[in-house]
Design brief:
46% strand, alpha+beta, 6 strands, 127 residues
Length: 127
């Protein structure tokens, strides 16, 4: 359970707006980024939303990792993204991998403002 849980709200993202609408592209990017940082992908699900008129309206996606998960939600109408990355391991410390992957994800969307939090989780006393 020992791990690092990183969450962030990205505001006024200056990336190409299509990045916030492209579920297949986000899925490929997120899976590749996780693998590049040495994490083990065991599943994934990305869903593109449509508004009442049928226009693209954002993406929700998750990459399930042996080490836990990455979740992303986009709101293109306000240029916002939320990120949630939890990387844990009972026998090792993956905090460095979590931090470098998270920095890459933040940079991808070019936010003008970021609200972020880091939580150390599962610091169990092992008998």
């Amino acid at each position: 359970m020992n791990g690092l849980h990183l969450i962030a709200d990205l505001h006024d993202c200056r990336c190409d707006p299509s990045r916030l609408l492209d579920a297949p592209g986000l899925e490929i990017y997120c899976v590749d980024a996780c693998q590049h940082h040495g994490l083990t992908v065991v599943g994934r699900l990305f869903h593109a939303f449509r508004d009442a008129t049928g226009q693209a309206a954002g993406v929700t996606g998750t990459v399930v990792l042996a080490e836990s998960h990455l979740a992303i939600h986009t709101w293109p109408e306000i240029g916002a993204v939320t990120l949630d990355l939890y990387v844990c391991n009972f026998s090792g410390d993956n905090s460095g991998r979590a931090q470098t992957l998270f920095a890459e994800l933040l940079a991808r969307f070019e936010p003008a403002r970021i609200e972020r939090h880091a939580v150390s989780r599962g610091q169990l006393a092992i008998p």
